[in-house]
Structures are given as C-alpha cells and as structure tokens.
C-alpha cells in the first residue's frame, strides 16, 4: 500500500510501483490538483487501484465544510481508509512535512513498530526549519521511530534557477528497520 502526498499533476513514481505490484493500491492527496497525473489517469489498468482526494497533509485536522484546503493528519487519513500500516509513504508538501510528521511520530512514539515501511521524503529546510537545533531534534524523532536513511540527493532546482540562493531542498529515503513488514523480512520476499 502506497500513500503519496504532493502529486502536482505528475504520477510516474506511483504508476511504476502500481505496475510492478499488481495487487498494490495507492492513495494520493494534493489540494492543489484535482486528480492523479496522466501516468495513472490515462491507464485504465491502474485507475481502479489508485484513489485520490484533494486534501492537504497537516499536523492538525481542519477539514470542515468551509476549510480550504482541508487538512488531515496522517492518522486520520489512515483511519478513514481503514489502514494500520503503510508500505511506502511519499511526502513532498513544500515544508509541511515537519509538522505533519512530528504529529504522526508523536502519536506512534510508544508503538513497538512504527506503521510505515519506507519513507520517501523531500525535505524543505527553510522558514526556520533549517535551524540546526530544530532540525536535529526533528531528525532524532525519525531515528527513534526506527527510520534509517539509506539514500539522499540534493535538489538544486532553485539554486540553478535563481543564482545566489542557498540550497534548501533534499530528497531522502528512509527504511523502517523494525518489524516484520515486507521491506525488511526475507520471509515476505
């Protein structure tokens, strides 16, 4: 099962995973677009396994009729969908990842196994989140949950477009090293 936040009209990542996992399903959320990207919407074999809502991921729930965008915590969305574990969680929400993940991590701090197998995350280190003390504390909560980084790549898009801007973005992949989920247990492979 895949949860993806920050679709922005492009769904090649989710499409590839759905094609490689014929029983896999994906839930996508992005308040700035109305659907998955064409990689899913144009493929009838994938559309039935790909569920989309124009919601925002946040650290609190604000999804009343008048709220725009409608913010949901990750726990609330999992409960809405009847899920207790996410195999792959992808988040690219332009800085909102800090509050959203802090809330989710705090809610599961006492869990024996954090309910995510793999985290694909774009980190937006700006607006005070680049402060070392803040960032180090936030990062330590990822580590405490059992999430270990195994890949990173700087995203220099704004550095290349606007010369003189310091790098603020990085892509990270984390693996949950705890539990018996399909990504770490050889019995599942």
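^ Assign residues to that structure.
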């Amino acid at each position: 099962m895949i949860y993806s936040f920050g679709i922005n009209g492009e769904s090649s990542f989710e499409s590839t995973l759905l094609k490689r996992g014929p029983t896999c399903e994906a839930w996508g959320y992005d308040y700035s677009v109305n659907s998955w990207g064409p990689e899913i919407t144009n493929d009838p074999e994938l559309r039935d396994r790909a569920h989309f809502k124009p919601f925002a991921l946040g650290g609190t729930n604000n999804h009343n009729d008048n709220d725009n965008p409608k913010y949901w915590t990750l726990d609330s969305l999992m409960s809405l969908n009847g899920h207790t574990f996410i195999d792959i969680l992808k988040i690219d929400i332009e800085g909102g990842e800090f509050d959203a993940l802090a809330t989710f991590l705090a809610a599961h701090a006492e869990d024996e196994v954090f309910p995510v197998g793999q985290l694909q995350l774009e980190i937006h280190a700006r607006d005070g989140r680049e402060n070392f003390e803040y960032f180090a504390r936030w990062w330590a909560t990822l580590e405490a949950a059992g999430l270990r980084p195994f890949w990173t790549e700087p995203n220099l898009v704004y550095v290349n477009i606007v010369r003189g801007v310091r790098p603020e973005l990085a892509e990270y992949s984390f693996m949950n090293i705890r539990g018996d989920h399909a990504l770490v247990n050889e019995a599942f492979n």
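The chain is about 30% helix and 25% strand.
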